Amino acid sequence: MEYTTVYVGMDVHKESFLLAWYTNDKEEAEYIQKTEGHNSKVISYLEVMHFHYGNNATFICGYETGCLGCGW
Q1: How does DSSP assign 8-52, residue by residue?
Q2: What is the pLDDT of residues 44-56, one digit of tens each?
Q3: Long-range contacts of 33-41 (CB under 8 A, 24+ apart)
Q4: Which of 20, 35, 53, 59 is 20 to 30 A (C-alpha) from 27?
Q5: 53 phi and psi, to 5 degrees?
Q6: Where are the domains of the chain?
């Protein structure tokens, strides 16, 4: 059984998100996508990756935040 770690980077803005994934196998960002700034778009993006990499993949997600931090 093969396991893959997929890193997901998110550049988060008020009205849009820029998403990309990276694996150590290819050593480059792939599937770069700009979406509306809504969490449902991130979930859809992750679902596509899950379909692509299968059940044995581990996803590690990170995001960039501005000087004011995260307002959650």
Answers
A1: EEEEE-SSEEEEEEE-TTT-SEEEEEEEESSHHHHHHHHHHHHHH
A2: 998 988 888 888 8
A3: 37/12, 37/13, 41/17
A4: 35
A5: -95, -20
A6: 4-64
Amino acid occupying residue 57: A
Q: How far is the C-alpha of 67 from the C-alpha of 28, rounded, in Å?
A: 27
pLDDT in tens, 8-36: 988 888 888 999 988 888 778 888 899 99
Considering only the top CATH level, what class is 4-64? alpha beta
Query: Tokens 């044995």, residue?
Result: 56
Give the whole-angstrom CA distance, residue 13 versus residue 72.
Answer: 14
